Amino acid sequence: MLKAHIIKQRRDLRVDVELQLEAGCALGLFGASGEGKSTVLACIAGIEEPDDGSVQFNGLRLFPPSLPLHRRPLGYLTQEPGLFPHLSVAENITFGISKEVAGTAEQKQWIETLRNRLQLAPLWNAPASLISGGQARRVSLARMLARKPSLVLLDEPFAGLDRQLVRELIDDLIFWGRTIGFSMIAVDHQAEVLKRLCPQQAIVLEQGKIVQRGSWSELYRAPATPLLSSLLAPL
User: How far is CA 221 from CA 28, 32, 98, 155, 215, in A?
Assistant: First the structure.
């Protein structure tokens, strides 16, 4: 289980959010841009440090104090793939995995499974600097999954991609979620994306605070604020 209370002062926004997530479940953080969603994820991931509060996952205290990034059993995907351009696709995916682990038959088989499922075989030895943006997103997904994280954090990783690729990546995440059994928190300003990734539950943020929790049907039936109503309105 994840239990988090994130308090973080931004320049013009004070984020104060409490949330819980059961093992193997998915939670959508929804709202307009600039409402504090990405700050919540960054603090859980350890990219940013909360000003106050606490974060625990499966009995492991992530904050306070801040647990080093390499000891956090989580994966974190953002809009930027963050690949090393001078390394090959294969080297990017296995980057940071110890030689002892990488050399095991189990890990080799797992990497092979990721390579085939995510259609990366034709790119395997290509430099990351020469692949397309869509391919880079697949590589970053494979790199995250290579470590079999217990918690996955998604901060609008599909921004700027065409609809077909977005559908494929969402299908992949759903498949791997069932395969690995990870918990997931996803941030997006598109309700349709979050409904597919996190169909059971959502939290709506406005001005750094939670204004509504519930199922998607509850959000659509009785949106708590005018802004939420406008965000959920069909185009």
Answer: 17, 19, 50, 26, 10
Higher pLDDT, 82 or 15: 15
**Within the chain, where are the H helices?**
37-45, 89-94, 99-102, 105-117, 133-145, 163-180, 191-197, 216-221, 226-232
Nearest to 19, CA basis, from 225, 210, 222: 210
209-214, strands of its sheet edge to edge = 74-77, 151-155, 183-188, 26-30, 202-206, 209-214
- What are the pLDDT digits (tens) for 90-140? 999 999 888 888 889 999 999 999 999 889 999 999 999 999 988 999 999
SS3 state at 35: coil
